[in-house]
Amino acid sequence: MSSDNRENLQRELAAEIRALQTAVDSFDYAAAERLGVNRTDLHCLDVLMQRESAAPSELGAALNLTTGSVTALLDRLDRLGYITRSPDPADRRRSVVRPTDKAVKAAEEIFGPLAQDGFRQVARYSLDELALLLDFFRTSRELQERHTERIRR
Question: pTM of the full predicted structure?
Fold first, then answer.
């Protein structure tokens, strides 16, 4: 492969990554709108779905929010019926936040078809190709995380 072809493919890949980021951002915006929440609230619900439960302080750290902002966010999600808050059985001074069945069902309705299509899409790749894609996305995420920390410092 000539260096011109390589450079062209790298530019095309970079353009597709940017287009993918825009498409994901648009999907998330539409999902948040459908749920009647803002993007930070949607991110919080995603964190809760991944962890199944979290303390408000853990959510604050994951979302990079202050204590007051987390409280306001949880109040909004609670009013919409998307979360429950209960005392932590191990330390009753703390609370535990969990997504409700309503939130799980809404997420499944919105994100389930996307996940199913995604699984069908990657089924055409060999194991070696899947390993390559996994490596690319993992290292790309790590790159983003490093540069996020760089600009926050």
Answer: 0.86
